[in-house]
Amino acid sequence: QVQLVESGGGLVQAGGSLRLSCAASEHTFSRYAMGWFRQAPGKEREFVATISWSGGNIYYGDSVKGRFTISRDNAKNTVYLQMNSLKPEDTAVYYCAAAALPQPVAHRYDYWGQGTQVTVSS
């Protein structure tokens, strides 16, 4: 069982930046692909980014390409999401998740964190 804990959310003005972190409880963290998803009120969960266990394969959702960067540090059991040029439409609860392979489909992820709120003011 992998436990995931997100941090780094908060309130930021449009155009600003935030870096989210997701710490995993297991030393087997390096075996998992990691993903970030987000969910705004009244909307479905949306794929943001995913990274393979080695970091060699990375994919982004269309709405965040060129603005967000996913990375991981297997020595620290942590995955990051650097978010730049934030927009009000980025406002959502952001979740990290673990899966066997990097993919944009939420239901294929086995473990989820509790989420962290990101609010972007205009």
Structural summary, described in words:
The chain has strands spanning 4-7, 10-13, 18-24, 33-39, 46-51, 58-60, 68-73, 78-83, 92-99, 111-112, 116-121. By secondary structure, it is mainly beta. The relative contact order is 0.32. The mean pLDDT is 96.
Overall 3D shape: globular
Strand count, sense and barrel status of the largest sheet are: 7 strands, mixed
End-to-end separation in angstroms reads 40 Å
Query: Mind telling me the C-alpha Rg?
Result: 13 Å
Strand composition percent = over 45%
Q: Helix coverage percent of residues?
A: under 10%
As residue ranges, the low-confidence spans are none
Summarize the structure.
Helices cover 0% and strands 48% of the residues. By secondary structure, the chain is an all-beta fold.
Helices and strands in order:
Elements: E1 4-7, E2 10-13, E3 18-24, E4 33-39, E5 46-51, E6 58-60, E7 68-73, E8 78-83, E9 92-99, E10 111-112, E11 116-121
Key features of this structure:
7-stranded mixed sheet; 11 strands; 122 residues; single chain; 4-stranded antiparallel sheet
